[in-house]
Amino acid sequence: MTTKIIGTGHYVPERIVTNDDLAMIMDTSDEWIAERTGIRQRRIDTGEGVVSMALKASKNALENAGITADMLDMIIVATSTADDLFPNTASLVQRELGNHQCVCFDLSAACSGFLYALNTAHAYIKAGMAKTVLIIGSECLSKTMDWTDRSTSILFGDGAGAVIVTEAETGIESVVAHSDGRKGEVIICDGRPLENFLVKKNVTYAYTQMDGQEVFRFAVKTVPECIHELLDQAKIGVEDVDYFILHQANERIIRSVSKRLRVPLERFPMNLHNYGNTSAASIPILLDECNRNGLFVPGHKIVLSGFGAGLTWGAALLTW
Ligand code: UT7
């Protein structure tokens, strides 16, 4: 018995912000951003929030799976940009979906969040503790950006992706997940600072800070290693994999992974040119687009792989 994806959905805010739009508020250009990252535009939230985006992606996924919300045993939301500290995003999505029994929690693993959530759902299903789980990646990165920092803010976008998984005979074949906190400082966003009756501070908001080159080096090394580990576990080779759905951070990272694995770039679908890096939402958004475009057929072998702050990284192999 394993875990199968039976439905996918996504939602992105309506407001499109192009590279040329960004060049009007900072010293950058479409040429620089497109050449260094592959990104041409991103969606930016103008007031909707992480719960609302998660809910819309979830409704699409439920419809795609042909099931109703009352059939869910669990909702997991991967996010680092929740609207509130509590209640958690998953409970707020549950409230709107009208299922008032299932277990709901959020999971924080930055851009690897969706993969960690998929692993968690898989573990619950294998343990017989859940049958059908809604997994969502929903992020509003734009609120964590310093929009005067051209080296980081141009990369990210807002959006949500969701999948429904359930127990089945075929589906996930192997999973790997890793974390290494020693280099955590290369991508950080401080939380709410301590301020109480003992400690008085002038509270200021913190923004995402990143050492782009360190993150780049980390990604191009760990993603291929982790995919090899995953495929060795499943006793198959890269040539047996039909598609690699990687976290959509930078086209140059994906090109480098394709080269290191010696797999043609055509087997790496991409949508980062449209959405930028949507962190935990990037893999489920891409999965949904590929699913709805009819790219996957039953029996296809698909690798998912993500990396991000923590540092965290992981991969999953599934049969569609
Ligand atoms: O989910 C994980 C999220 N993080 C990532 O995926 C980040 C991975 N890293 C990257 O994608 C790349 O490192 C970046 C796209 C962030 C930066 O690309 P780079 O090729 O490493 O550029 P760089 O930082 O070496 O900067 C080269 C030059 C610098 O100018 P000087 O010092 O050579 O004069 C920067 O100041 O480009 C300049 N620069 C820009 N110029 C125009 C940096 N950002 C910009 C910009 N527009 N937006």
Would you mind describing this structure in some detail?
- The chain is α/β, with parallel strands linked by helices and 320 residues long.
- 33% of the residues lie in helices and 24% in strands.
- The strands form four sheets. It has a five-stranded mixed sheet with strand order 1-7-6-4-5, sandwiched between helices. Strands 8-13-12-11 form a four-stranded mixed sheet, sandwiched between helices. The chain has a two-stranded antiparallel ribbon with strand order 2-3.
- Helix 3 (50-65) packs across helix 4 (89-97) and helix 7 packs parallel to helix 8.
- The radius of gyration is 19 Å and the shape is globular.
- It binds oxa(dethia)-CoA.
- The site of oxa(dethia)-CoA (UT7) has 18 residues, from helix 2, helix 6 and helix 7.
List keywords for this structure.
320 residues, alpha/beta, 5-stranded mixed sheet, 4-stranded mixed sheet, 13 strands, 24% strand
List the helices and strands and how they pair.
Blueprint: E1 2-11, E2 16-18, H1 19-23, H2 30-37, E3 41-43, H3 50-65, E4 74-78, H4 89-97, E5 103-107, H5 113-126, E6 132-140, H6 150-153, E7 158-168, E8 172-179, E9 187-188, E10 209-210, H7 212-234, E11 243-246, H8 251-261, H9 272-275, H10 282-292, E12 301-308, E13 312-319
Parallel strand pairs: 4-5, 4-6, 11-12
Antiparallel strand pairs: 1-7, 2-3, 6-7, 8-13, 9-10, 12-13
Helix pairs in contact: 3-4, 7-8
This protein binds oxa(dethia)-CoA.
The site of oxa(dethia)-CoA has 18 residues, from helix 2, helix 6 and helix 7.
